[in-house]
Amino acid sequence: MSKSHKDPRSRILITDSPEDVHKKISLALTDSASGLSYDPVGRPGVANLLEIMKHLDSHGRTCDELALVFSTLNMRDFKQKVADKISESLSGIRSRYEQILDTDNGRYLDHVAASGANKALISAGETMNLAMN
Question: Which of 115, 99, 2 shows the shortest CA–CA distance to 52?
Fold first, then answer.
């Protein structure tokens, strides 16, 4: 997963549907070795998925611990678990985002953006005045 890569499949957005998340994770590049192990150098794709799971794990387990927990799964089933966990973790914020977008057909967000831009313009003007004087 990479937020800077041009390919939209390289990252998961909060606006992605659970189906999109599952598709992106299922396409994530991993290796053909059997089993799960946390090896960032030798198995970077698998390590990346384990790191995602670590950050979403409510038990605070390490990547090595998670590799043991999921060691009986094949890669396809592990990716399914990762996608499920990501979708579950994003559901609340995704719902809130959609709710805000639906409010007044998105005009609320337009208002917030315009207000922020106006504040930035005022602040920049003050900074420029201080720099010029």
Answer: 2
